[in-house]
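hey so i finally got around to running the thing on that chain from the lab meeting. sorry it took forever, my laptop kept dying and i had to restart like 3 times. anyway pasting the input first so we r on the same page abt which one it is
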Amino acid sequence: MVLVLVCVAFISGGLLAEVNHITEKPIANQQEKVLADGIKAVMGTEKVTVTGNDTVYKNIDNGKQTFILHLIGTQGTAVESIVNGFGGPLRVLVGFSPEGEILGYTILQTSETPGLGVKAEMWFQKDGKGNIIGRQAGSLKVTKDGGDVDAITASTITSRAFLKAVNQAYQAIKK
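ok and heres what got predicted. didnt touch it at all, straight out
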């Protein structure tokens, strides 16, 4: 009986490893496409040429945060920022003009509550209730915390996390 279980475990493990190997490249290609489309969206134009990438490490909240900067020539910078939201990691891509003005954003990864926290995808956009597009980042806060950005109804934690990601992304490009 033990021998049968060991054989089944080895066969299952081998099959899982093979499936992982087969799907690894398509998943990586899809992630690259999502990032490229995201950069175009946050910069507000289809004509985007990434002239370089940089990784910046900053000590924030007693921990080391990693930011990936995508340099877009004279158009500005797109920054990947990750914070903890209500449901887990919230990965945001924010586009900044050379002057630090927010050009756009997209959420690359979220684990927020369906129907509430996922509203961040549109809530802070130009036509959203908490519009941050065109604003200077760095000290954006929800109204509950003394700021002037409307939080997502019934999802203040996600709103705070999102604005924290945007503010931290701005701090990363100031370096």
